[in-house]
Design a protein that fits this description.
The structure is a single chain. This protein is of the alpha+beta class and about 300 residues long. The protein has two domains: about 190 residues, 2-Layer Sandwich (D-amino Acid Aminotransferase, Chain A, domain 1), CATH 3.30.470.30; about 100 residues, Nucleic acid-binding proteins (OB fold (Dihydrolipoamide Acetyltransferase, E2P), Beta Barrel), CATH 2.40.50.140. The chain is about 20% helix and about 35% strand. It contains five helices and 20 strands. The strands form five sheets. Strands 3, 4, 5, 8, 9 and 10 form a six-stranded mixed β-sheet that branches. Strands 13, 14, 15, 16, 17 and 20 form a six-stranded antiparallel β-sheet that branches. Strands 1-12-11-2 form a four-stranded mixed β-sheet. β6 and β7 form a beta hairpin. The chain is elongated, with a radius of gyration of 22 Å.
């Protein structure tokens, strides 16, 4: 049975030296693949079974698993590429997961990007240094394709970060070459540096406290709830939000996936959501924005 995966620690710097290797940070969902002779099981970061959700990934690994004599445990990220931006999209992979199917045509096809090996030939190799685990991983005869492949390693973290910035990718992960595999974040061996997110969102309403807006309720372009933001909400914006609610009131939200906790709040909903630009650190595993803040909110013609 898989164990909770090793998670990188957020940092503002990129480590240097020959003892480190650097990889692209693939913006998706963490998936462990337990490949036994003739069968494959996929598990999430919280060890929930995801086998039926990504049949194209399971299918690729199943073909290879028939050749195995002993179990192999793989670690990687399932991503969905944005066809316009040509980079992984976390909202798209969440949308894909909610469909629980192979997606609409090729638009939401899952890709499994591998970066670690936890067990091989029936033996636990987590205590081995990362350099050895990675070499074993790339030597496995898994059929490499555009839907399943091992991510590359780079010596120059600064150059990789420059590439990420130029192309709008999420960030990079730096790993000590001699690091063992440790559950969770009880280590200093995997470091991630991420770009600050900026995304077009929609204010679908606001939370009212003390008879005034205290935060806006946010949805993405697909109408999925992504959190609340209060940072950046000044007095002028509070007045605009209140005036918009008077002109465009709604009895119920225009979005989906609202958490039960919102039912405890007094929320004023909009019939017509307000487009806004939101900054955030990242998406949580639940698909919500971590530390969102309002960057722009248009001067509304109320």
């Amino acid at each position: 049975m898989p164990v909770p995966p090793m998670s990188p620690l957020l940092s503002s710097h990129i480590p240097t030296g020959t003892g480190w290797t650097h990889q692209l940070k693939w913006d998706g969902v963490r998936i462990l693949a337990l490949c036994s002779p003739g069968s494959v099981q996929l598990y999430s970061k919280k060890l929930l079974n995801k086998t039926s959700i990504y049949p194209e990934v399971t299918g690729i690994l199943n073909q290879w698993s028939r050749t195995l004599q002993h179990p192999v445990l793989l670690d990687g990220e399932v991503v969905v590429m944005d066809p316009k931006m040509l980079r992984p999209s976390f909202p798209l992979v969440l949308q894909r997961e909610r469909t629980r199917a192979q997606g609409a045509g090729k638009a939401l096809q899952a890709i499994y990007v591998l970066f670690d090996l936890l067990a091989c030939n029936g033996k636990d190799v987590r205590a081995c240094p990362y350099s050895e685990r990675y070499e074993r991983l790339i030597s496995l005869p898994i059929p490499s394709s555009e839907r399943c492949f091992v991510t590359d390693c780079f010596d120059d973290g600064d150059a990789l970060w420059q590439w990420v910035n130029e192309r709008g990718w999420e960030g990079i992960v730096s790993k000590r070459l001699d690091s063992p595999y440790v559950e969770g974040k009880q280590h200093r061996d995997w470091i991630k540096k991420k770009k600050d997110m900026q995304l077009e969102s929609f204010a679908i309403g606001y939370v009212r406290k003390d008879n005034r807006p205290s935060s806006i309720v946010l949805a993405d372009s697909a109408g999925q709830y992504i959190g609340k933001a209060s940072i950046g909400l000044d007095e002028l914006r509070r007045q605009l939000l209140t005036a918009w609610a008077i002109k465009h009131p709604a009895d119920r939200p225009t979005t989906q996936g609202l958490p039960a906790s919102l039912s405890k709040e007094q929320i004023i909903w909009y019939r017509h959501p307000i487009p806004c630009l939101i900054g955030a650190l990242e998406y949580t595993d639940a698909g919500l924005l971590r530390h969102p803040r309002i960057l722009t909110l248009p001067l509304l013609n109320t």
